[in-house]
Amino acid sequence: MNEEPEDNQIPMRYPDHPGYQDMDTSKTAAESMLPTAETLRKAVIWVLRKHGRLTVHESAHLLDLDIPSIQPRFSELKEKELIRDTGVRRENKSGRTAAVWEIRNA
Fold it and tell me: Would you say residue 16 lies in a domain?
């Protein structure tokens, strides 16, 4: 569960901060991403603006980042209504079908 804010602190709430399940390991993982989550969200926006419609895997490759660090940023940006699923699907390296994302109102 996200902690309540102390005096004049902004609450740590999804999607502005990494989300987590009600487990100590999940919370620890989310807290470890706090310093970099906003930078990674900005990187996702940048790569989608520069290259257009992309899957998470394509974005990770272009940004030279690992998929587990970037996948949650897509969920956060979707929740913030900054990006959207185009409805298009492409096959990724594993052979699975992946959603193609774009900047909203692009």
Answer: no
